[in-house]
Queue: 4 jobs
Job 1
Amino acid sequence: AGEFIDAAQFYSGLLDPDLRGLGYEDQAAYRLGMCSLQRVEPDKLNGTVIQQGLDQFRAYLVDFPQGLHRTEAEAARAELSEFLGGYHLMLADYYRRIDNPPGERFHLELAAGRAPLGHRELAGELRGTQAAAEAEDRLKALDAAAPAAP
């Protein structure tokens, strides 16, 4: 992972406003996002790294709407969205283990692509993912298991 941190610093340097016009911007912005994607370890999800990659690809797609790597960036962003959903499912599992139903529900709602407590942008990244479908199923199971209100 260290080599990707070093590479990210290099690519960030190429995005310095003083270097604009040298022709590196498109490639550097894409590669910066790829450095974050490469740092994601599927068996040890890190929400900060995942969110950083999503932010970098979102910026790439906005700054370079006809970019050289648009298709690859969209695919990488979708992959990171799945990882982010998995991260929130993992957090929901943790809250279930420590018997914290509100925490479990909160992270399941995020993973499902819902927007609790002002997390609209995050929820938008997760809608339509496989993790969102799993989270919806788990929310339905929670609702079915909930005792009826008196």
Job 2
Amino acid sequence: ERARYNSIVGSLNYFATSLRYDIALPTSKLSQFMASPTVGAMQCAVRVMQYLGATSGFSLRGRVTEECEYIHYSDSDHAGDKPYHTRSQSGILLTLNKVPVQWKSNKQSCTAYSSTAAEVMALSECVRQGNFLQWAGKDMGYPEPPTLTIYTDSKGARSFQSSITLFSWLRGYFDLREAWVKELRDQGRVKLHKVEGKQNQSDLLTKLMRPSTYNNII
């Protein structure tokens, strides 16, 4: 049974990383049970497969243009799996001309003691992945934009990026000498925008939601 479960989740991971970003969150959750799967985890895996079968017409669509517009989304779910564990879930969605081209939903490596800390950790990963995407585009001949545009619904993360909270308690949580902190705070390179939670497309990668909310995001 464990071998069958691992085979199913392995197949789901293939779909989640290649096309179906809409199952990235449940696949990430299911992957956490691969060492010791449970009956409930198997039932959830079967349900995700049923969802894939019912939505086999899912596709990524966009218009071919000469312009190259990068817009990225970042979000986190602070300790959303309590009481099982206290680590938060990060979700990032990178778009090229409003078409999702790269995404990631994963459990953070350490416990964040506040929602702002969790959002900052997710934001740093979005900056790293966004830079890599734009460098890859530059190698293919696309112009590199002057700034990295990221949308987030976290006021605390935006304040941290703009150094407003430089002397707050977050200074004791993050080592401000770290290279990723300096990269995140380079306002000439990273530009954050506020977006409402219901319009944040990366919410799909951190939270389970009702069908009505899901349909508005997808």
Job 3
Amino acid sequence: PSPKPPQLMREIIEFFTKENEIVFDYFSGVGGTLIGSSLCNRRAIGIDLSNEYIKVYKEANKFLNLKEQKTIIADSIEFLNNPKNLKKHLKEEEISLILIDPPYGDMMSRPKTGEAIKKKQSDSPTPFTDSEKDLGNMDWESFLKTFNESILNSMNFLKYKGHIVIFIKDLQPDGKELNLLHADIIRDLNKIDNLQY
């Protein structure tokens, strides 16, 4: 639904990591981060709710003849709530880069505006799932709380001076609502000890 160009992901990964280090994407989708990691000789772990998206990643990866990265089909929020889950995949190693593009609250569950209407496309909502646990179905305040917990849980495995990179899209202002989603995320994450924007 929102693939990232693997070449762009490779550049970000190369900037923040060294060869053979571990990159973690717990909203991996169709695997742009995973392919980007393979393109620059990094190891990656990707988690996604959708078996279909992971299959797409594996097909693309096979077509490109790249090393297949580790994939896990799971609800990443629940997965990260139990430290043993990630620990068994990392063994005794640490993550160098957490690189994620989360669903931004219920953005996909809303009717489309802007480009969809200009291009005369459907304005119907396109949620990823119908699960209440899916971040993509949560109101913004619930999303922020759950997302922050996921960052705290994943940081337990991040090496000292490791990095977290988050893709986020702001919405158009709506009346008095500024809809600067990135500012809300930065504000909340900046309150976390040992995390600096």
Job 4
Amino acid sequence: MTSFQERLRGSIPALLTALNQDLTVDPEGMGKVARRVIDGGSKGVVVLGTTGEFGGIDDDQREIAIRAVVDEVSAEAPVIVGCGQPNVRRTHEQVVAAADLGADGILVNPPFYFPMTQDEVVAFFADLVTASPVPVMLYNIPSMTAVSVEPATIPRLRDVGVQGTKDSSGLPPNTLAYLAALGPDSDFRVVVGGEPFFLHLLEAGVCATTGLMPCVAPQMAAGIYQAFVEGDHKAAFAAQHEANAFAAALRGLHAFAPATGKAVLSRLGVMEKWVAPPKTSLSDEEADRAFEGVRQWLQE
């Protein structure tokens, strides 16, 4: 097992990207949200993933976001950077830039828009592993890419050097099929996207979760993991149920979860509420209602 794989554990939040009203990245806000989640028990962070609105962040702002998070927490926890464009050359450029800025690993979705065969997925990642100075993880999120990486493909990706995957299929049976395809003794790391079934999938063999919710209430997913490793299953299930109640409350506030998360964090002084277009930010009145709607779960 590589040192990078050993560090993939627990809650690894997908950070919201702090933006100013002019849509430039706010480095102070990036540092604050990174510090918030690490102090809340998280074991790493993902920058510029789906939660981080990577598609809406201008290319010249990526460096600001990555550097701010690396400077704040890389000495304490791994910083993983989301990369991935329909254009292969641009993806490779993003990967090298992330490594140069101090990323510990990269999380890469298959090129989206055109469907891909499983052989094409393997070839793409084999080339990427060769090009990348840092460890590569697959980001399986078929609802966004229209490319579903099949369980039988996961060992093939392991064999070409991919070190892990985040499975955001939203389907626990798919995550379980990934684990089954790898076998019980594989070093390949399987991370689940989101927390609704985190405890159940920890029992099955996943090592971590990555999602939006810990940006707002980091202690919840961290608490599930801590209770699990301590063998306190009663506390772990209680923490899982509480995390699910919080997630239901937050998601029920607005259709675009990053806008809700930013609005709540704006009321805590962590970052401003702005999201990248074409999505829309919450109004001040909506932000106030969102904050009150989840206030009972917040560590202010």
